[in-house]
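Example record

The entry below shows one chain as it appears in the dataset: sequence first, then structure tokens.
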Amino acid sequence: MAAVDPIVYAQLCKYFPALTPKQATNVCFYSIGANNQDISSLLEIAPVTVKKSLESVQKHFNTDSLPELKTVFWAGFTFRQICAKYSINCDELFTSLRTEALISLKPFFPELNKNQMLGAILYSVGFPAAEIAVKGRFSVAQIEQLLAEAMTAMGVASEILLRVLITSRFILDLC
């Protein structure tokens, strides 16, 4: 079997700039259902190499499990599609954390205020609370409080379910 060239998947790096083409390829395949053995077969590399790559990405996105990494991948991917649809500059949003940029997304999350929405979206696409705090000039405790408030407002009991619900609303809008 011919190996899949990760460079073909390099365009995923524009959605996930912190990832290498190999990492982006691995997490893409994993997120659409391939296991380590499947991915290693497609890329003609050792399964342990795939496992280490996915664990590295998991650590980067601060997820508690590999299944949660799938949700972060899909949240990030669909959020970039939403940004394109609504002419939101994702890169600017990620660096400046300007809540005004998210005004067009308010109908997705009527139960959240702008800070809860910003925190919940950024957390869902893989930003750790500490990074959101630094960029937004909040304390980590304030970000954790915003996430807790968002979870309560959206009626979910865990951060993984918050990520799932946010991602599902993006997917529904893209349909």
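Notes for this example: The chain has two domains: 7-60, 97-174. Residues 78 and 171 are 6 Å apart (CA to CA).
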